[in-house]
Amino acid sequence: MVKLAVVILNWNGKGFLEKFLPSVVAYTNKPEYQIVVADNGSTDDSVVFLKENYPTIRLVELSKNYGYAGGYNHALQQIESEYYVLLNSDVEVTRDWTEPIVSFMDTNKEVSAAMPKILAYNNKENFEYAGAAGGFIDKFGFPFCRGRILYNIEKDNNQYDKALEIFWASGACMFVRAEAFWEAGGLDADFFAHMEEIDLCWRLKRLGYTVYAIPASKVYHVGGGTLPNNNPRKLYLNYRNSLFLLQKNLSRRRLLPILVMRMLLDGASALVYLSKLSFGFFWAVVRAHG
Q1: Contact 90, 16 (CB under 8 A)
Q2: C-alpha to C-alpha distance for 275 and 193, rounded to whole angstroms
Q3: Whole-number Å distance between alpha carbons of 204 and 180
Q4: I need a surface site. Which of 29, 67, 113, 171 has the fewest CB within 10 A?
């Protein structure tokens, strides 16, 4: 068993591997650490590229695209490690990026998952949308982050540089204690992609664990690498999975009034898309509620 396994889930991401894998290799170099690429049934030359250029990196080849959640579950079942790092292929890591988080989790055994500060690769002074400086959830079940609310992104002025307990850690770069991951049942493959990390963190917290943001570690994330933000399928998954998240983790008494409010709010959102003749996005919201 290794101390820490950095597991990159890849799907047709040869370009990202070429660009960002060198930083992972350079800055994840302890003998007790392992780098793993789990290929989610890619149809590009990702696997050939890895075998030819990184023969020492462990490659787990999956038979098809299982999505984020299913892909990681299948891959992590084959990896023995004290900690997993679920790392997107479009993330540039920095020197000693693992150490503040591993040290914190070694010292605080109740911490099941943690994330670094996530900054935007293409605008490195700003936070990145997917996680920023730590995730929370509001009373209507909408996720938000320190450093990002809706599409308003803050500049990093060191305003969030203290370690803090959060509600959820970003799946773009999530450190998770392997024992706790499997105790919680792993990721829920029904999500396929988007918000499955929030569901996992919610279940971990229900088991009595905590989740933290550790900004002493930082990475740079491109974002939107698999499904761009203007993709109706991404919008559908975000709306559907947000509702699924609430249905799974709230009691019926707490769930019903929130669902009524969400139908009103999401309905208003759908009408805005319709008014702009964005029929694909309108239908995505309707399908999500269906």
Answers
A1: yes
A2: 28
A3: 7
A4: 29
* pLDDT score at 229: 55
Q: Let me know how long the chain is.
A: 290
Burial class (CB in 10 A: 0-12, 13-18, 19+), 104: middle
Question: Edge-to-edge strands of the sheet including 135-137?
Answer: 135-137, 143-145, 148-149, 152-153
Q: Residue for token digits 């889930």?
A: 9
Architecture of domain 2-221: Alpha-Beta Complex (3.90)
- Kindly list the domain boundaries of the chain, sorted by start residue: 2-221, 232-289
pLDDT at 224 (0 to 100): 58
Query: Which of 206, 204, 199 is closest to 183 using CA atoms?
Result: 204
The residue ranges of the chain whose pLDDT is under 50 are 225-227
- Residue 204 CA to residue 74 CA, distance in Å, equals 20
Q: Give the Cα separation of 53 and 47 in Å (integer).
A: 10
Rounded Cα distance between 143 and 131, Å, is 10
Tens digits of residue pLDDT in 113-156: 999 999 999 999 999 999 999 999 998 888 999 999 878 899 99
> ∠ CA 215-27-54 to the nearest 5 degrees?
135
CB 192 within 8 A of CB 68: yes
Helix (H) or strand (E) holding 131: none
